[in-house]
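Figure S4 source data
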Amino acid sequence: MLLSLYLILPVFLVIALGVALDVGGVLPRQTGSIIGNYVLYAALPILMIHLLAGASPEAIGHGRFWVALLASQIVIYSIGYCGEFFLGRRGHGPAAAIALSGSCCNAAFMGLPVVMSLMPGNEEALVVAGLAVISPNVVSIPCQVQLEYMRPSAKCSKGAFPRLARAVLLNPLMCGTFVGLALGCTGLGLWGPLDRAAAMVGGTTAPCMLLALGLDLREKIRVAFSGDRPMRLTRLAGAAFLKLVVNPALAWALLDLFGVTGTWLAVGVIVSGTATALVSYVIAEIYGQVPEEVAMIAVTTNVLNLASLTVLAGLLRTHGLL
């Protein structure tokens, strides 16, 4: 367990540096957003192209891995949604937002750096982690579609679905993934100098993601405590438990059930065990569905993630998977 903590701790120290820079006012206030945009629109898509262009078609098309990983997130979303709607007696909008916060993994900003730290130099692990970055779309996109059509103006607007489709298909991360998949599946790969350049840019992804997370954390805390009514502790604890404990446990069980082993299983479990993705808060804010509660869940799970990932990595190491 101590070894797992030793390997994961640097990830959170970079986040702490971002928090310190923000509190100290060393950098302009918009620095976190600027760095985050650089990662999302440039570094991460380029890293995806670099990783997938050099991957074999067999690795990319690991069907059992995809079925298990995506199914686990869909099941977790369904549990959160039904729990909020039927037991919590919330409307469809708040139920969807809370369910998303309990199922949408921070695969890019947390999963990728943690995998890099736990498995340094493991190219296969990087490919798997890169592929897993797009997995939260299986819950975030349907949630957006539902919230889009719940808008009061949605009945009069016939362009909601095409607008969402364009937003997804033209997303830089998705474009980078498609390009990388095409290069990898066809065996074309990247031209040598271009591949090395892509590796250099992609190498900035992890530290920049973590720094941006730290720089924006205080703002998320402010939003979390800005609501008129504080979030009920039972709801917060339930969402955090669903995200940090049930999600990776279910992913592990399904991956094992479908015969996924080794690095693929370990990375799938680690990614599933990451905290709530900040995109959940963005979606909740855009559609006006309990953004303060979603921000509180995101902040809480990201703070607790050091402990939960350390335990998870220790269990994977005990089973010989790390």
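Figure S5 source data
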Amino acid sequence: MGLFESMDLLTAAFILFAGLGAGAINAVVGSGTLITFPVLVAAGIPPVTATMSNALGLIPGNVASSFGYREEIRGQGGRLLRLVPASLAGSLVGAYLLLHLPETAFESIVPVLIVLALLLVIFQPVLQRVVRERKQMAAPELDVHGGLATMSTGRWAGVIAVVFLTAIYGGYFAAAQGVILIGLLGLLLPDPLQRINGAKNVLVLVVNVTSATVYTIVGHDRIDWAAVLLIAVGSLLGGYFGARVARKFSPVVLRTVIVVLGLVAFWRILTL
């Protein structure tokens, strides 16, 4: 029976469909782990093993959602080249913490971060308008080719810090890192929400690939490879089709979906 010798058909089906849902949700905002993680734990997989297996399984979905958002990502190459190292470094720190700290270390701060991120998403238009009025944001926001926004050195430092710190969290647990990242980047970057979401998908992909690589090298014997395969297949399909649907949302609809899913993520973390 190979990989699936210790897993019954019903359990495998639940994990597969959890991966499908997680891939779709990650494409929209990024809290799909809150679907897959409880399913893996309910299937009898230890929490750390579930976290590591989940990180590997969601990578195909991250790739698919980034591809689905390729139009919004186009023109952001220069920006992403600056931010990817921060995601990579933060993810390495987070993966180290997962392998060395107690599993409950972040339990008290995670709900607070999610609520803060949701408030930033809700009030993003107002906050950005206030920032512009105070001339803290340089203009123009985007050049005619959709290239890099012109921002001050201080604002760039803030963006890099946000990406780095969110990547630490993502490398440690991953759940709802997209909500947090969108909320903070939406305040700091002058771009439309859909472009920020496209960049978010790429940065989350970097985090998951980096942490998954660490898990594979250091703890390959603790990974449930059957769960990885099932989540990978589901998230691949969910990530692509979720992105194709989400990118058609208006800013208001996308913001509403992010808030609703973020509230669900908040509730799920409290009940894990």
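The CA atoms of residues 108 and 270 lie 9 Å apart. The longest helix spans residues 193-219.
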